[in-house]
Amino acid sequence: MATKVLDETREFDNGARYDLRPWQVPKSAEFPEGLKYSLQYVEPNGTPRLRYDNYHPDPDLGRHHRHTPTEDTSIEYEGLRAHVRRFQQEVYEIRHAD
Q1: How far apart are CA 11 and CA 44, in angstroms?
Q2: What's the number of domains the chain is made of?
Q3: Could you report the per-residue pLDDT of 8-32, keeping only the tens digit for each?
Q4: Pick from 51, 59, 45: which is nearest to 18 by CA?
Q5: Domain limits for position 63
Q6: Sign of CA pseudo-dihedral 47, 21, 1, 31
Q7: CA-atom Rg of the chain in angstroms
Q8: Of 63, 50, 38, which Cα lies nearest the Cα of 92?
């Protein structure tokens, strides 16, 4: 049984958007925090530009990871609120660097 924690989409004036989709799930070896999440920023053409998720553990990256078009990296998880803030800050930086 999964319970939606947040379901937020923000669309920007250029057609880009981000989607925040965390779910509370039973604590398990797969989801030790009791949370399954995907935080994704998508370009206007639909190309994913940034994603944080914990859907599939990676032997090299661990449970929590960050995806960009050029690399996948491990990220530290310090709770959902901090994770969302970090993601939104990174989206802000991407949008203002272009």
Answers
A1: 9
A2: 1
A3: 999 999 999 999 999 999 999 889 9
A4: 51
A5: 3-97
A6: positive
A7: 14
A8: 50
